[in-house]
Amino acid sequence: MNDPIEQFDVVVIGAGPAGAVSSSLLNQKGYRILVLEKQHFPRFSIGESLLPQCMTYLEQANMLEAVEASAFQHKNGAAFSRGEEYEYFDFREKFSAGWGTTFQVQRDNFDKILADEAQKQGVQIRYGHSVIACDPFADKRQLSVQSDNGQRYQVHAKFVLDASGFGRVLPKMLNLEQASTLTPRQSIFTHIQDNIDQPEYDRDKILITVHPLHHEVWYWLIPFSNGRASLGVVAPTELLETMLGSPLDNLQELVSQGGKLANILKNAQYDTQVRTLGSYSCNVTSLYGENYALLGNAGEFLDPIFSSGVTIAMTSAGLAASTVHKQLSGEQPDWESEYAEPLKTGIKTFKEFVEGWYDQRFQNVVFSKTKSDDITRMISSILAGYAWDTKNPYVKNPSRLSTLAQLCQDD
Ligand SMILES: Cc1cc2nc3c(=O)[nH]c(=O)nc-3n(C[C@H](O)[C@H](O)[C@H](O)COP(=O)(O)OP(=O)(O)OC[C@H]3O[C@@H](n4cnc5c(N)ncnc54)[C@H](O)[C@@H]3O)c2cc1C
């Protein structure tokens, strides 16, 4: 006789930041949760620079203490460099209330800490278990799972949260994929022993450098607390396709063109695999459906420029957890107005600023010397992840960025 199918209140696909935080928040409400994770942790993931806004969710999920105990690099802002120009935003001097500092984290360690904390709180996580199908089943969802050792089985969930990142499990299975309106771009990145010896270099900030000749090409330098750093470059796909070297050759060639960045990294040791990732911007036709919702990268992913990915993932986790709680308590939440619309408020803000970065409206604002302290505080808030604070005029109406860019250009 077949084993009975296991029943859960909520099954979460993926144990990254969205999966760990959502499962913890729902576990706090007393639900029976199962997280299915395809890989074994620790595993590499890109996306190391956090934004202060996500500290709120780490607190709510009772994970902040464990993160703080882990000696990650402190972060208090974002610095920008273009030729001889250098500007920085200090997140502690921002318009919105809330955390003004956060961390730059090696994601293999960080994601494992979050998942371990969720497990300690009582969430069941199965590593090496991949979701391979999802069907509606009476008033539930039935997921087919395959484990590393080839075992196949089914589970039933009253609700499924897809936190599978670029795995995009439900968007693929339920035909929800929608192309992003953002231009396809590619990234080359690695970890280095940075050996930076300039005393003026500020390890408490991410450094974004604009290529001296191509305004659409930019580099990130995210220092860690152990003398290492994440280094990456983003460029239009067609530009990178003209580079014929290995990923390491191409990255080093681009860094050598990076003006001051080349000097900052003059002693760097490239001792780790160089990876490439392209066409990552993606969207879906809907962020929710019958007994499921899409979180983090499984929903919409914009662009790496403002390090917004983990913050969007955790915000989606927080919103989805409270809406699932309503639904499983017998209320009938309106997923559009209680989940999709609020989540999209912040995504819309970031999207306007992403578009403004690549068409140079926002680059001109960043490097303008004449912006007022008030404007600087409002921009700082958005860069710190407070893209949902509609008291900020640039969140309430993100298209105000165009007027601001015009003013900065005229000065
Ligand atoms: C080049 C680049 C740079 C970036 N830099 C930053 C940055 O500095 N800061 C920032 O905040 N964000 C950054 N991001 C974005 C960030 O990486 C993501 O937004 C973030 O990791 C999303 O979290 P998540 O929980 O949605 O998914 P993930 O962290 O990707 O987790 C998804 C999990 O689902 C699992 N999974 C996949 N398929 C299945 C399956 N079939 N069954 C079970 N499990 C499955 C995966 O193994 C994975 O562990 C960057 C992105 C890119 C492309």
UniProtKB/TrEMBL annotation:
One of its GO terms (molecular function) is anhydrotetracycline monooxygenase activity. Keywords: Monooxygenase, Oxidoreductase. Residues 8-226 form the FAD-binding domain. The keyword Oxidoreductase applies. Pfam families: FAD_binding_3. InterPro entries: FAD-bd, FAD/NAD-bd_sf, Flavin-dep_Halogenase_NPB. It is an enzyme of class 1 (oxidoreductase). Its EC number is 1.14.13.38. It comes from the Bacteria. This is Anhydrotetracycline monooxygenase.
